[in-house]
Amino acid sequence: MSPTTVLRQTTALLLLALVPSLLAAWLHPKRPGQSTGSEGVQAIALADALAMSDRQPVLWIDARNADVHHSDHIPGSINLSLPAWERQLMNFVEAWDPDQPIIVYCDSARCGAALSVAERLVREFEATNVFYLTGGWEAWKQSQP
Amino acid sequence: MEAKPALAHFIPVALRWTVAGVLGYAGVMKVLDPAQFSIDLDGYRLLPPVGTHLLAYYIPWVEILCAAGLLLGPLRAGAWLIAIGLSFGFVVFLGSAWARGLDVSCGCFGGSAAEPVGPLAVGRAMALLSVSVLGLRWERRTCRIKNRLALK
After folding, report:
1. Nearest residue on chain A to B142, judged by CA atoms?
2. In this complex, is the C-beta atom of A9 within 8 Å of any C-beta atom belonging to chain B?
3. Do residues B96 and B44 make contact, with C-beta atoms less than 8 angstroms apart?
4. A104 phi, psi to nearest 5 deg
């Protein structure tokens, strides 16, 4: 079998994959870029989050991995990350008051884990007032003197 | 003496089904939630958002069609080459995230199976790459033998 044949087959498969991809981009109910703020989760900037936590008790959730959380975290936050969900869930259940707003954070504005954790809390616990911190840990760290 | 040809036939088939199974499963799980896969890709910090969005639609279907190509036959060599390309990409993404110490979900099998980037994920991608290289070599060799027999 010549390299040309292999390349021709590869091109055929790659072109074929374009068809369902384009259909998904047009019709899929869970399209990228639409999940922000979906499922009852709202984005919140650090300044607003701090103002909220001054007004009322807030449950901070650190969606980063356990070792990173243990090295440093927002004071009072509990660790709940997707990879260790089952193991860490009890911490959340014990700390959670349904009337209390929840603010989830991860590394930075780009990490995505905070939104995923926040959406899962809304789905599984029907939690309301769930926010994800847009700048994440980086923003909080920079705001500290 | 008869065990050798049987084994020689069984091993490539088993490898092909394994790679097809892994890629097919990964593709289907990602197709279900492209938004989550896009978030996972974004976590690697290697692509701009528009790039992660496009890949979130495209990669899962490439995986599925690659798995179908491996199983169905006529485009099998092309499917092996795609498997090599995909697994090489996985190694680069996972390896770079691991080297940078990024705290991200690997996104290997969609959002429902959140698995951190680490040695397991990198090792699995490298194993997939090795098997895919072997698979393509074996496929080309088989075709050469078949062509020679046909010429006779």
Report:
1. A1
2. yes
3. yes
4. -105, 140
3-state helix, strand, coil in chain A (%, to 5): 50, 10, 35
ipTM, two decimals: 0.83
CA distance A143 to A137: 10
* Strand residue runs (E) in chain A: 41-44, 59-62, 78-79, 102-105, 130-133
| Type and span of the H or E element at B125 | helix B119-151
Nearest to A17 among B52, B65, B144 (CB): B65
Collect all residues of chain B within an 8 Å Cβ-Cβ radius of residue A115: 39
Q: Which of A16, A31, A111 sits opposite B65 (nearest CB)?
A: A16
Give, for A63, the enclosing helix (H) or strand (E): none
Q: Kindly identify which residue of chain B lies nearest to residue A85, measuring between CA atoms.
A: B114
Instruction: Flag if A35 and B36 touch (Cβ within 8 Å).
Output: yes
Range in A70-74, B117-121, B147-151 with the lowest mean pLDDT = B147-151
What is the rounded distance in angstroms from the CA atom of residue A114 to the CA atom of residue A116? 5
Does B36 or A106 have the greater pLDDT score?
A106
Least confident range from A94-108, A124-138, B100-114: namely B100-114
Which of A21, A35, A113 has its CB closest to that of B61? Answer: A21
- Nearest Cα neighbor of A83 from B141, B138, B106 is B106
Using DSSP, state whether A44 is helix, strand or coil: strand
